[in-house]
Batch of 2 targets.
Target 1
Amino acid sequence: MKADIVIVGAGMVGSLLAAALKDRHLDILLIDTAPVTPPAADAPYEPRVSAISRASENMFRHVGAWKKVTAVRYSPYTRMEVREEEGRAELVFSAADIGESHLGCLVENRLMQWALTETALENPQVRLLAPARVVGLERYASHWQVQLDSGEIIEAGLVVGADGAQSAVRRLAPLSMEVWGYHQKAMVCTVRTSRPHEATARQIFLKTGPLAFLPLPDPHLCSIVWSATHERADQVMQMDDETFCRELGTAFGDALGVVEWTDRRFAFPLIARHTERYTLPGLALIGDAAHNIHPLAGQGVNLGFLDAAVLAEEIGRGLDRRLPPGHESVLGRYSRRRRGHNALIMHSMTGLERVYAAHWPWLIQLRNDGVGVVNRVLPLKAFFERQALGLEGDLPALAQACPDIPDFHRASA
Ligand SMILES: Cc1cc2nc3c(=O)[nH]c(=O)nc-3n(C[C@H](O)[C@H](O)[C@H](O)COP(=O)(O)OP(=O)(O)OC[C@H]3O[C@@H](n4cnc5c(N)ncnc54)[C@H](O)[C@@H]3O)c2cc1C
């Protein structure tokens, strides 16, 4: 079999790339180890939910996948509250302060993946091969050979590794990476609280790690992400549901009343990884295959979506100049636009995590003073609020607002 582009991994990021390229007259093969299944609007909430920025929402709208998300369910949030266990100050971001309708949206990962894959497959030149596992890669002068677990071989001018944190493409290429541990696990689940969340995303920095309550479409349901040291996480994961709800309520405080119920819990070890290069001739990595970041600022998939949008933009720009998708200048431009930006965000998140992990009294005071200043100095606060939308910096066209698209969500003010 042959394709212009093989995208390994039809997760959220790989399928956005396929959807973004769907009008470019390219033969694209999306490969995934698992079939992509449609979510049901009345199913229980998935444990894996992501806070997506307004820039990511714009990408869904541009490619035509947003209506598939909204037809099922999503939860826009209009406020963000961040505080710390040891401090008095609270940082409050509000969409209304900057004339926006909302700061971002909570959407289940599986729903985003399905909406994007379905959108990509609207073009008959995009095919999905699943379940199929990539087990081998071989480089030739003008193409790569991709080997599947079935023994089938596929030839492609460009191979994109969008196969997540344990990327086989990264290992087989091979591309080396920098790894540093957060020495934490993230626990995730859906919980019900006695008070409504009022479309507010809340985060508290505990001594053992950050804890976020992210609002779901039901006003009394939140998706939580609780990052803690391995010892603490193992202890919490072993608790029965009643003890867990009590412990969670004690850790979080009473902003949402009592934690009344929890769904099944899952835990993930948190490891930061960044590949030293994003590309080889005819090969590129995007999303978690290239970088893994602490979930404390909800940035991981938003960075991955930007990778996909920039790579699609550079491939399009190359095609306009009659360059093939895997041309070195196309991949070089992609890598230059994304690696530095991702490194900056990753190191900022690691720095933030370390600043909040330390408990020296002078540092606690400094953190509180800093938060107080940001809250009081309105232009500074508006700057951070705009950063939270993800609409600053080198944005690909797909991430920008486009009022010409019907149903494009504009600021309410
Ligand atoms: C607890 C937690 C909370 C998070 N919260 C947020 C948040 O609020 N906001 C945010 O932006 N990010 C968040 N993230 C990060 C986000 O989940 C990831 O960045 C995102 O899932 C990465 O998407 P991806 O498509 O790159 O990879 P994945 O979602 O891992 O998809 C990879 C795909 O590749 C397939 N695959 C793997 N190996 C092969 C192979 N050999 N052959 C073929 N296919 C293969 C897999 O089946 C999968 O479908 C969070 C992460 C964690 C751990």
Target 2
Amino acid sequence: MAEIQKLIDGYRRFHKKYFLSDTTLYEELDKVGQSPKTLVLACSDSRVDPSIISDADPGDIFVVRNVANLVPPYEKDDKGFHGVSAALEFAVRILKVENIVILGHSKCAGVHTLLNPEAVEDSDFIGHWVDIGQPAKEKACDFVGSCVESDALQHACEKEVILLSLKNLMTFPWIQERVGAGSLTLHGWYFRISDGGLQHFNPKTGVFEEIF
Ligand SMILES: [Zn+2]
């Protein structure tokens, strides 16, 4: 109960700030609607909240979160429930965001599961979902020179998953088209939980570089 009370107290602070003290932002968002310029696709991990990390205001970022910040490949003919793909389509084709950020992070349990699938052999959904990351796992094993569990393999795989998600974004025809036209830019970010460091992938150098 104490945990829920903490959230209710937080809601009251939020409500006071945006609906009692200064109402202009939400009045505008209500009247005009949302027009976020950036979609952030992040892991569901409770420590890596895109709005908190980027200190964003309401209306600034359109957020999609899932286990291990994975983008599935474009699958038009598969009539499964494509929640991530639907959110991408809404952000890119309706909201016309100008940036997509894939936000990965250290100590990712989803990536750990990808590397150690035996832990979720009995799972209903997790194992199948993180399987999207297989190509990233193979690259990380090649890079480290071993598929045996290690911190180096975990770090390498967390970054390869970001690159795989960026690659899979380009399998969506309307993303490919807008990137080609220069109206949409893709970004890969990596957040370190230990010290709050943030890196971005530099496509020119092919490595993740510190942001600061
Ligand atoms: Zn994670």
